[in-house]
Design a protein that fits this description.
The chain is of the alpha+beta class. The protein has 11 helices and 10 strands. It starts with a helix and ends with a strand.
Amino acid sequence: MKKNLTTFAILCSLTVFGQTTEEHLQNGIAKHEQRDFKGAIRDYDKAIKADKNNKDAYYNRGTCALAVNDLKAAMTDFNKTIELDPKFVKAYYSRATVFVSEKKYIEALPDLDKTVALDPTTPNALTLRGQIRAQTGNKKEACEDFYNAKAIGDKQAHKYIGQFCGNEQQSGESLMLDWPETENWKVGSNQENEEMAMIELIHANETLENWTEFGSMISIKGAKNVPMNTAMNMMFEQAKQNSPKAKFTFIEKDESVEHPWIIFTIESPYFNNDKRPESQLWYIVQGKQALYTNFRAVRQAIIPTHLKDKWIKFFKTGQIVNK
């Protein structure tokens, strides 16, 4: 009888123990959802005190610490969560965000790799890894991340495709242009319909109404086998309608390659509806599914030689890719 009573007492203790840690965890979650992070942390402390292997309590406490910018505490809790469960996907992603908050971008990549390996549908994991890859010069794999993120429904991915990867086509073909991060480009406008897609880029501290340098990428869907001189003349004739004093200068072309291309300038001292000058250097390339027309512009009547050389070099890095 004594042995039976002892066994019963142990079972009761275990039951109370389980209820206690779970109750503290649920109390913490309730406060967490109300954004009472400090109150939630106190309840998670109690849950961990009751059960030092409660991985959910460690993880949740870490997210609260991250929310109040206690990065050291957050890192400690995410480390412990992963120690207790090496397949805890959210802990890897959250630890990566701590590294990012500390501007340790390279250190964040292994955790993002692990996150994607365990569950590629983890929200924002692909886009965050893509941003880090893009900013560290790995644009090819960055764009792969953005395309994959878009495929699983990440609404932010389209913005990064426009910023880092060029014009996306429904067929999977796109023109990739590496707009330099050091120039602080941002997408000012991103529009698309059945006939074309257009992305307009400006510097981070400027607007579409007031800019010093401007970038444009337009893909004309379904336009195939367009002679490069024809494409150039079309752009010049369009410019002259609003800028009768516009001048164009052919620079270079190659129609012997798989994707024919041409580079030229259109320099305008003023426009009928805008007296400010604007000069553009154009790069047009023929894809299999679309004609890609791109230019960079400056608010000057003539493009300075150093800018012209820089822009030509930039456009020659363009690549048509298929995803």
